Amino acid sequence: MKFVSEFKESFRIALQAIGANKARGILTTLGIVIGIVAVVTTMTAANGLGNSFKESVGALGSDVLYVSRMPWIVMGRNFEYRNRPGIGMKETQKLKKKLRNAMAVNPTTHTNRSVKYRSETLSNVGIIGTTEAHTLVTSSLPEFGRFITAMDVQNKKNICIIGSETRKRLFDKMDPINKKIKIGGNRFLVVGIMEKQGSASFFGGPDFDSQIYIPITSFIKNFGGRHRDFDIAVKAPSQEQLADFKYEVIGEMRNIRKLHPTSKDNFSINQMDSLLEMYNNVMGIVILVGLLITGISLFVGGIGVMNIMFVSVTERTREIGIRKAIGAKRRAILSQFLFESSIITLMGGAIGILCSYGITYLINKLLMPAQVSIPIIIISLALSVFVGLLSGLIPALKASN
Fold first, then answer.
1. Contacts of 83 (CB under 8 A, 6+ apart)
2. What does the alpha-carbon distance between residue 12 and residue 322 come to, in Å, rounded to a whole number?
3. Which residues contact 343 (CB under 8 A, 6 or more apart)?
4. Please, are residues 342 and 20 in contact by the beta-carbon 8 Å criterion?
5. What are the residue boundaries of the structural domains of the chain, listed by start?
6. What was the pLDDT predicted at 9?
7. How confident is the model over 315-330, as pLDDT tens digits?
8. Which of 11-23 are b and which e, b meaning 16 or more Cβ less than 10 Å from the residue's Cβ?
9. Which residues contact 219 (CB under 8 A, 6 or more apart)?
10. Number of Cα atoms under 13 Å in the Cβ half of residue 206
11. pTM
12. Which residues have C-beta within 8 Å of that of residue 123, sequence separation ≥ 6?
């Protein structure tokens, strides 16, 4: 009980000391405020970017293989890949016949065109030619209306399904279903609106919400297909069979292209894991740099707290002597100054978190979804107290001696 009362008394005296020097306390917290703002903003931005990216690439499907001319991620020069022959529609049809165990085989191709509705024009919009199997190989579905059907593909119908961002920019609050838009020089009937998928543009990927989907046959009819590259999405029988199924796809593609056993593959097999691996590598570096800057900020803030505590100890030598003369133990003096430094940094941490809420609000509105989470707040406050204890330890030891 005596031990607890000593600590309560030390805490009370620490609060009184801070209250007596409000201006000094506020100025001392500035370094900590900057450091905590850096911590919270870095972690919040990393979480927001991670959630946005994973939500976007999640639509690609973890059990889907993508046969393409080029790999999604190219390190260094890509002369080797540029000389590869493109994947044509005939190869897509042959692969579909050979892969009898595949849950779905979906060819796609793309181009960029201007899109117009009445007086509103959007330039450089991604146009995706695909089939009804698109909804089987991805998790993206129409929010309103419908998607492409087998009849649309068979009859080469000029229908389209627009992304949520395209709908917003082209139609504003108007209902676009059954309205006709111009894609390039051709008219297409809007039959559906895709649900919001997000964007992978931070990593050079597409903005899924700004794309327009049309039947692959009408794509070839309107925009040509002879010299275009096609990507083939192949859904594995199950997640467990994905690794074995990948070798089957590679083998069938090599047979279709009549490659010699010693020849290298002149096509690439891509999957979602490669994008996630790239994301983890890039974000690891970004977070490391962010935490390094944060560490420097907190170190500078901690030095500031230590200096102020040394000044405080020197100014209050008389007070310390009187307390010792009337029976205060060394641990009571030590805890008093540790409490004082910890409270100062804790105040800085709290102010930093409040400032971070404002910055996070702007990030959420202007850049990407972001939110300050409870674990981030707890880590930030714990870090503030730790810096306070570390910064106040040497001054507190001096005072207790």
1. none
2. 17
3. 14, 15, 18, 388
4. no
5. 2-55+277-400, 63-270
6. 54
7. 667 776 776 677 667 7
8. bebbeebbeeeee
9. 109, 111, 127, 129, 225
10. 20
11. 0.68
12. 114
